[in-house]
Write a structure and sequence with these properties.
Radius of gyration: 19 Å
Strand content: 5-15%
Distance between the termini: 64 Å
Helix content: 55-70%
Shape: elongated
Number of helices: 6
Number of strands: 2
Order of helices and strands: HHHEEHHH
Strand order of the largest sheet: 1-2
Length: about 130
């Protein structure tokens, strides 16, 4: 049995978020070894490689040949990634109008005004 207590485990997604933050900051493809060194968390090489491969398979990262392996880079910036998750959640919901209504009603005044402005801009761009 591992000496690590259950309480010491990272929250779900924290390591993935850290990996993505390193890749966004780099602005160029990085190998598993480079990402691991930048994180400096003492992870096994295979752990980092597995994380990067899974993110590639999900479409979150793209990879390019680098030496005998691959280097990885994000497909989208942080805002694009969140927007994609929001869109997928909405697409999976049969009551889209209700979800949108609840979302809009939960916005702060500033966010609501920003959304209005963005919708007007999108409408102007489509004409």
């Amino acid at each position: 049995m591992s000496g690590k207590r259950q309480d010491d485990r990272r929250p779900h997604g924290e390591l993935v978020a850290d990996v993505l933050a390193v890749l966004w900051e780099a602005g160029e493809p990085m190998t598993a070894q480079q990402v691991n060194a930048a994180l400096d968390k003492g992870l096994a090489r295979t752990t980092m490689a597995t994380i990067l491969i899974r993110l590639f398979e999900k479409g979150t990262l793209r990879r390019v040949p680098s030496g005998r392996g691959f280097a990885y880079e994000p497909v989208e910036d942080a805002a694009g990634l969140v927007a994609g998750r929001m869109r997928r959640e909405l697409e999976n919901e049969p009551r889209r109008d209700l979800v949108l209504k609840r979302f809009v009603s939960s916005l702060s005044e500033n966010d609501e005004e920003t959304l209005r402005r963005l919708l007007l801009e999108a409408e102007d761009d489509s004409e």
